[in-house]
Amino acid sequence: xxxxxxxLQNGYTIFQVLGGRSNVFLIATxxxxxxxDAGVKRKRKQLLKNIGIAGINTIDxxxxxxxxxxxxxxxxxxxxxxxxxxxxxxxxxxxAEKGDFDIPSKSLVYPSFVLKLASQFGKSIFKYDPxxxxxSVPQNQLLNLPGFDIQLISTPGHSIDSACFLVGNEILLxxxxxxxxxxxxxxxxxxxxxxxxxxxxxxxxKLNVSVFLPSHGVQVSRELxxxxxxxxx
Length: 233
Description:
Order of helices and strands: EEEEHEHHEHEHEEEEEEHEEH
Radius of gyration: 16 Å
Strand order of the largest sheet: 1-2-3-4-5-6-8
Helix content: 25-40%
Number of helices: 7
CATH class: Alpha Beta
Strand content: 25-35%
Number of strands: 15
Number of domains: 1
CATH architecture: 4-Layer Sandwich
């Protein structure tokens, strides 16, 4: 069995070590290995298996795109098992310490009563084990991760704590800031603020990258992102 991967000019390799419910990516570098998101608990064994298939047995950093359970349910476990550090946005740092999260209030695909139910019962249904982070990027800012050719970019809109990770100035791991599920659309299924999301998209478009890998679905093109910004102004 092989794990899908992308090789970068700086010598880094990005592996997709989970798909389906949520994509999880692993960045292998000469300076260490970084896992991007941690997936849901029921996928824990598969995640560990695929990390091994990729030829990796150590994780130095766990990068969290945002604190929704399908992205961070295994974060506390991963930190304990690999004794790794965790990086995220500053709002995510606050959520993580409490096992809390930002519930999106709007949706393009789900009716309002579904969102109301999620608001009422989501905190108990979608809870996760709290964890602490070691490095965080302030809202609407961009920071280099020390020791790596990786930048953390705060991109609120889907949720207040959403972040993306730019790897080698070639590939952007977009979390839920972009979706690759709906035909001819990069819009998330859920979001909090459309205007804020559009501003985050514009920030991403300024980057010199053409490969956007979301946490849900398939690769999003630069052309689609431009189209989405234009059509949602």
